[in-house]
Design brief:
The protein is an all-beta fold. The protein contains no helices and 12 strands.
Length: 202
């Protein structure tokens, strides 16, 4: 127990050395403060380690616990200014959020991960495994399925063809239907017998 008249008790490690604060075997080290308390590191890096040859388990982790009803947060700061929040949103089904600093609510921008594993970007209520609610830029091609839909990095689109050679190519390469950028239409057929067939009776 520290008893200090000005309320500013401190533990200082040796110059050029390391200060180790350890809990006893099978015990926890707990730092507790009131709402105005700040635990800080004036210089260097704070390292939290489990000294064990075993893997870290649920009983040997860093826990951030809001003992009242509310959000549990990690705040990333730059020179004392909040920049990012990482935490669990108690007001919205305890979803995990990574948001720019400012507000931390169900309407915050950023990335949201629900308990079902669905990830939302630009939405706080993802309804699919990846839900993006914004204009999206893909610089290096897009593949849906194995080759069901393929968009190359230069903008060529293939349906059923993972290597389109025209602006739009439908088929599998040897047998395909191609549209050029100027709307020319080309039939590519392996046996040279491409055909257009009208409706029966039409």
């Amino acid at each position: 127990t520290f008893v200090d008249a000005d309320g500013a008790a401190s533990i200082t490690g040796p110059a050029g050395g390391a200060l180790t604060v350890a809990a006893g075997a099978s015990q926890a080290l707990t730092l507790t403060g009131n709402l105005a308390s700040t635990w800080s590191l004036s210089a260097g890096t704070l390292t939290l380690s489990v000294i064990s040859s075993e893997q870290i388990t649920a009983s040997s982790t860093l826990a951030i616990n809001n003992t009242n009803s509310g959000d549990s947060l990690i705040i990333l700061e730059d020179s004392g200014t909040d920049r990012w929040y990482i935490g669990q949103d108690d007001s919205d089904s305890n979803k995990l959020r990574i948001t720019p600093a400012g507000t931390f609510t169900a309407t915050s921008s950023g990335i949201t991960i629900g308990a079902n594993g669905f990830v939302g970007i630009g939405t706080t209520n993802p309804s699919t495994p990846l839900h993006v609610n914004a204009t999206t830029t893909i610089d290096d091609g897009l593949v849906v399925g194995t080759s069901d839909l393929y968009v190359s990095s230069n903008g060529l689109v293939g349906i059923g063809d993972a290597s389109p050679s025209a602006q739009l190519e439908i088929g599998n390469g040897p047998d395909s239907f191609q549209f050029s950028a100027v709307c020319d239409v080309t039939f590519v057929d392996a046996d040279g017998a491409a055909s257009i067939t009208g409706p029966a009776g039409g």
